[in-house]
């Protein structure tokens, strides 16, 4: 069976290590952008490793294009930190001064004098703010003078791919519509890009690009490069942790297995690539120490892991609370109901996440169970907060499963709110598990809805 489904089998460690000697290393845009976030020593190590790879290093044209477009924002983000640190220090000093002043110690206490310590803290903050100014002046990158990009210009000279022909690019973006509906990786988790609050489509060199298809375009360029160069081994470096690149499972916590099997199968079928693997920056540095003869301190690897995690959290979805997956007993009943409305396909991913194609839109699903003794209205209010702070334009459907005692409280909330306070692209369904005696089974029965998508599904039930 293995020869038929080899993409589902993990590659032995010795084969992964052997591939480092002759594989082509492909860089994603986020790898280049995170160079601005890493400490100077770690950045230098990475750039030297990349440079030493020589002709085995390659960057897809679209990844390089995304880097150029996103670079000013990342630099601004780094420069803004100087201002934010100053602001936080000033706010802390002001708060301390005000709270100490409210105690009226000069008139109400004969011994305590806080002025000396306040003066010392104020002086220390002033000294540190001056040091921040000097650090900012000594930074090796800004919009006008960017040593990081200058170094990349040298490292990547002759190692960046070409843009796709207009006709091919159009075909890929058209294909993307079908792939996203089928939850075919990569990129379908970017389906919300280009909507409200996000940058829309753009043109460069006369070519039209939709941002939501960025990952897919990069992937197709990797396949095309492998076809043209007859590459047999490819290692892709990306700090994108989403489940439309990585296969993850939830076993005593989230665990990343490797590239999605669909990706390994597609690149083998389309370009006869025999080995395809992926690393994020921290994993790459860890294995580079062993396989490329470049010693990287563990401290640097840990710093990279923390920095990448922090960068990801800025765009991560906000979860209301831990719920249940569609593979649980309750989840299976919710899934059966959802499929009975004609909404397919449904794909369960790692971290308990799931997506479905509903009315030709990709929708993130979340199931929350009302814990006995917990107020269902508290759960509903948290869902409203989640809808307002979400940073993606993905439609999200939250299905809340309550008990008999929750019905009255839920009815009151839906009658009062009816989703008026929900953010865009968000819907709620409230229901309960009920027994059907004739068929001796338990089913999920939706009872109330909020949001356009919620009312649409309730009508279909």
Write a structural description.
- The chain contains 16 helices and 14 strands.
- The protein starts with 12 loop residues before the first helix and ends with a helix.
- With 461 residues, the protein is an alpha/beta fold.
- The protein has a 6-stranded mixed beta sheet, with helices on both faces. The protein has a 4-stranded parallel beta sheet with strand order 2-1-5-8. The protein has a two-stranded antiparallel ribbon with strand order 3-4.
- About 2% of the residues have low confidence.
- Helix 4 runs antiparallel to helix 6 and helix 4 packs antiparallel against helix 9.
How many alpha or pi helices? 16
Largest sheet: 6 strands, mixed
Order of helices and strands: HEHHEHHHHHEEHEEEHEHHHEEEHEHEEH
Q: Would you tell me the structural class of the helices and strands?
A: alpha/beta
Strand order of the largest sheet: 9-10-11-12-13-14
Write the layout of secondary structure elements.
Blueprint: H1 13-19, E1 24-27, H2 29-34, H3 40-52, E2 57-58, H4 61-102, H5 105-108, H6 115-137, H7 147-155, H8 166-181, E3 202-204, E4 207-209, H9 214-229, E5 233-237, E6 246-250, E7 254-259, H10 261-271, E8 275-279, H11 281-291, H12 298-313, H13 329-340, E9 346-348, E10 354-358, E11 361-369, H14 376-389, E12 395-402, H15 407-417, E13 426-436, E14 441-450, H16 452-460
Parallel strand pairs: 1-2, 1-5, 5-8, 11-12, 12-13
Antiparallel strand pairs: 3-4, 6-7, 9-10, 10-11, 13-14
Which characteristics define this entry?
alpha/beta, Trna Endonuclease, Chain: A, domain 1, six-stranded mixed sheet, 16 helices, flat
